[in-house]
Amino acid sequence: MKTIISTPKAPAAIGPYSQAVLVNGMLFTSGVIPIDPETNTLVEGDVTVQARQAIGNLKNLIEASGSSMDKVVKTTVFIKDMNDFGKINDIYKDFFTSDFPARSCVEVARLPKDVLIEIEAIATVEKAYETGQCSEKGTRSVMVFPVADMCVSVCCYDPVEDEYRLTYNHGSESDPEPEHDIRADDHIYSYKQM
User: Which site in 22, 79, 135, 153 is 20 to 30 Å from 32, CA atoms measured?
Assistant: First the structure.
């Protein structure tokens, strides 16, 4: 099953593409650039400022998808100037601290909005939960993900947009029980382990 991931914690898609797609336990992100998702504006500053914002946006997208930075298996980094590689690498190491993913880094002639860096990733999502009952609005598909082993995200299927949307995050001490009810958006969702 292909699940479209959308979160306000990363820059919105500006064309006919998705922020990320989850399929068969693998997450594929689109390229992420240094846009502040709250203001939808490019961050001001040099390549280190842009790198921190872009990789931070990638982290937010990966976590909203039910994965984490330590589950990233491959990144591709596009940079405007290969002379900035060392500076970008220093920021990169703040986000990927051990068991580093495979990586490609290429210099390109131009990036969207003339940014200095764009980054994309492939990550694993080891656990997912799926259900069907929504107590107040009838049946709809719901996916529930443990995020970073400490919280639960609920993604509800939006039939109008034909995609799953992150609708709820909930902190927890451990993974959800195999069958459980969760309250989100004033509705009760029942879910079961896949």
Answer: 153
CA distance 7 to 60: 8
CB environment 90-103: b (16+ within 10 A), e (fewer): ebbeebbeeeeeee
Q: Which residues are catalytic?
A: 105
- The two counts, helices (H) then strands (E), for the chain are 2, 14
Each as own residue / partner, the long-range contacts of residues 165-171 (CB below 8 Å, 24 or more positions apart, any chain) are 165/6, 166/5, 166/6, 166/7, 166/64
- Predicted TM-score (pTM) of the model is 0.69
Q: Give the residue carrying structure tokens 């820059």.
A: 11
pLDDT of residue 165: 54
User: Which of 151, 135, 138, 146 lies closest to 190 in space, CA to CA?
Assistant: 135
Which pLDDT value is given to residue 3? Answer: 80
d(CA 179, CA 181): 7
Q: Which tokens go with 9?
A: 């914690």
The tokens describing 29, both together, are: 């992100």
Smallest CA-to-CA distance from 155 within 14, 27, 13 is with 27
